[in-house]
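Please complete every field before forwarding. Incomplete forms are returned to the sender.

SECTION A: IDENTIFIERS
Entry label: holo-682
Bound molecule: magnesium ion
Molecule representation: SMILES string

SECTION B: INPUTS
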Amino acid sequence: MVTKSELVDVIKSTHNQDQFRELNWTGSFGQYLDLVVEQPDILRTAHQRIYDMILSFGSEEIVVSKEKLTRYNFFSDPLGGGKEAIFGLEKTLAGLVDHFKSAAYGYGSEKRVLLLHGPVGSSKSTIVRLMKRGLEHYTRTTEGAIYTYSWRVEEDGKELIVPCPMNDEPMRILPYDARQRILSGINATREDTYRLRIEGEPDPVSRYYMEQLLKQYDGDLNKVLEHVVVRRIALSERDRVGIGTFQPKDEKNQDSTELTGDINYRKLAEYGSESDPRAFNFDGEFNVANRGLIEFIEVLKLDVAFLYDLLGASQEHNIKPKKFAQTYIDEVIIGHTNEPEYRKLMNNELMEAFRDRTVKIDVPYNLRLDNEIRIYEKDFSQSRISKHIAPHTLEVAAMWAILTRLKPARKGDLSLIDKLKLYNGKSLERYTEENVKELREENAREGLEGISPRYIQDKVSNALVRDYSATCVNPFMVLNELQDGLDHHSLITSEDLRKHYRDLLAVAKEEYAEIVKNEVQRAIAADEEQIQRLCANYIDNVKAYTQKEKVRNQYTGQEEEPDERLMRSIEEKIDVRDSAKDDFRREIMNYIGALAVEGKNFDYRMNPRLQRALEKKLFEDQKDSIKLTSLVSSVVDRETQEKIDVIKSRLIKNYGYNEESATDALNFVASIFARGDVKSKS
Ligand SMILES: Nc1ncnc2c1ncn2[C@@H]1O[C@H](COP(=O)(O)OP(=O)(O)OP(=O)(O)O)[C@@H](O)[C@H]1O
Ligand SMILES: [Mg+2]
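SECTION C: PREDICTED COMPLEX
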């Protein structure tokens, strides 16, 4: 039980009064200048701030397919504890950060619409969401602090505080040359990074009060600035500060005021003129997102008229509301789009201007199995769901997803499953890293088509709720869901494609059979003592063979020729060909020799290949004694049952099964052996 005083303590400790005070800082314009001197970074543009925000989480250099890339920790969602982490996509994300970098330096990207382009469910929205959350967090920290201002004015004998409706940078009130002189002083000390810039006119409301006050004080700017109250803000999507989202509704209902704000008719009566900025609502999405980021969902579904607003907003950093003055904005504009809309854009001459002002970044699906698995492990982590997920369940689903995304190689007879393994970092005979890089490059559309993670997520969820009697979900349940869903998958447009996807389910199933068979084999053969004995026996023979000596038979004490049949029966298990056996044996002896020099003993676990071979050999020797196939029949004698229980407990202990999934796995493997179609490849 929790007590009330504990709850009170929790509340006290989570509400941070110091932070509240800091975030609600207000001061005079003069005090703001002190802050600027102390921390010039508070003047950053939206692009600069977002760039620094991403960098603030650190990065590391990695190599993907022989290409050096920077991986930014930010996209692992450190703020959300990894809940929205992006896996893979290193190249895409590095490209995205480069875009912000170039915008930070003012190389032109800050005048472009960033267009995330990719198939459904490729994490476009997730990436944007991360950036929004990142900004919200960053502007609450000291290094990410951001400020705006209000006017303290008197109207009709009453003192009014009028906030700058666009949350503008306070320094923007200053005339151009004052800004330039201040900046040149500051920028002189910033040789190793981008320059700070303060561009654009103040918003119309501020211009209005400036003019009024300048008149009142006969042009004395210092007096005018005394009416400025600077305050710190924190960007917040919920509070509509610095973060906006725009989603096109149906075409007839699109109204540009949603983007650029609207006349406030109630106030219009009061102020009498449509062009009086005080009678204008700066509540369009562009207004709201000033200083931060605006996201356009399905941007290419926007009415053409809107796209022109978008062009002005990006290229000139200006928005032009109906019947109202142009307004300067400083914000990152990100849109996302799927393939069909993008293709329409490419085919539309009228849209050339738009195309020219966008920077397109492809956000493809993962092609690396390990990363795809991590997506589903995150969604279906065992701590979040009550049902047990049998080992390899998510792996098999992920495998199928990747297979649907792969294109056949141009040359050679590389199967899709082998291509998948190559991409996943496995080395295959005849393929170098250089080949893998070529494979990746030969088909630019690879990763832009296929099954989306969302489909997999939905079907795994279905499998989880489907059969209430089972304590676990196994790969077959998920594969069945995946298959059933194919019949009414709205994005599969041709029967050929449907058939192809179905065939790939069979490929994934076959691959699973291999995996689980190996695992059961290893569990059966996991008797340490026996492996060690077999290993010692093998090594004795190999030693004699390489040194052209005889072996002493343990039982008869007689000297005999090395047991070639025994050695080969082990080596064959891992495809050591007859022509390669001498090398293999010599290598092992050299290794053992080197160990001996250091005074160490050989252990079979030091050589995973040999270990695998020994396990397989043992499994083969024991298979019949355990009568695996009898598992599929209902009558099992006591002795067999005991052995089966040992194997099950090993599966549970070493491989993450539970009682039911271990039984399933054993039954499945038994059925394979009962059919007798055993592939003896590893
Ligand atoms: N590379 C990835 N890393 C982590 N999660 C991913 C990845 N790709 C997709 N996902 C997951 O897939 C789901 C769909 O992602 P999201 O909604 O961001 O896609 P989207 O590209 O915006 O799709 P749409 O085009 O349909 O709007 C999310 O749960 C997301 O976490
Ligand atoms: Mg989306």
